[in-house]
Structures are given as structure tokens and as C-alpha cells.
Description:
2 helices, 3-stranded parallel sheet, mainly beta, 6-stranded antiparallel β-barrel, 9 strands
Amino acid sequence: MARKPIQVTVAKRERLTPNLVQVTVTGEALADFPTGFEGGYTKLVFLPDPDSSEPGARPVVRSYTVRRFDPGARELDIWMVAHGDTGPAASWANRVQAGEEILITLPGPCRKPSPDADWFLLAGDMSALPAISVNLQELPEGARGHVVLEVVEEADKLELEKPPGMELTW
């Protein structure tokens, strides 16, 4: 089932690392955004440039992980890998300013690790970093296991909140 896009406004853009940008969006349309979907995905809809001479240009849609949602403030944080200006999403993430509007969809399903597991293995590249960081925060305090994260460069390593029994390898 297709999810109808909603319009939100960029509240701020923050570069977390050389290759990771956090975009915070806000707006009344987030009143219908469900809670508990951190780690799930939303889709950003990049509309064609109205000044473009490209005939038949269509919107470009990309999926991004919901890092944080505050329903009271109606704020949604999305982490985006933004290395270079090679695509519509990375280019947008590198230049977007507060006050700009964008269309997003309501979230897709979340796949969370079972809190009852005996041991956990979480692995991914930078595009998986927001979901893995959400999952680490939601693991029980006594969780044990290993996390392997691949980053573009050393400066992309972040301090992640995790149970003490989870070993982290960058």
C-alpha cells in the first residue's frame, strides 16, 4: 500500500561527521506520524527542479532511517550519509537550509532485535548506522554481543550509547 507523502519543514541541518548529516524536520503534518518507529524508515521525496530544462523530470524517492521522533515537539531526525554531491539526496543533504520544505512518507516497518536473544550481532555500513544506534539503545542492559560498523573515514566514528556487554568494532 502506498503511503501518501506529507509536507514538513527543515528545522535544522547538522553535520555529525564528515560524511553524516542529521536533518531535523518539523510540522503539523507530523501529528499523524506514529511513535515507536525509530529504526524504521521513511521516504524523502525530492521534487524536480522547476527551472530544469529536463523534459519529463519525475520526483526521486529515497528511503532513510528514522533516528528520533519527538511527538510533542513534532520533530523528526533523519541521519543521511552525504559524501559528495553525486546524487539528489546527498546533494540535498549537503545544501539544505532551515525553512526549506520537503515531502516525506509515514514510516515503514521496523525490524528490531528480539530482547530475549542470548547474544547479538549487529553489522552494517554508514547507511545502517542510524538503525543500529537505535537498536543498541533499545537492547536490555544485560545484552551481550558484537557490533561491526564500516565508516568512510576515521572521523566518522561516533560515540554510541550501548549496553556494556556489546563490543563495538569500527
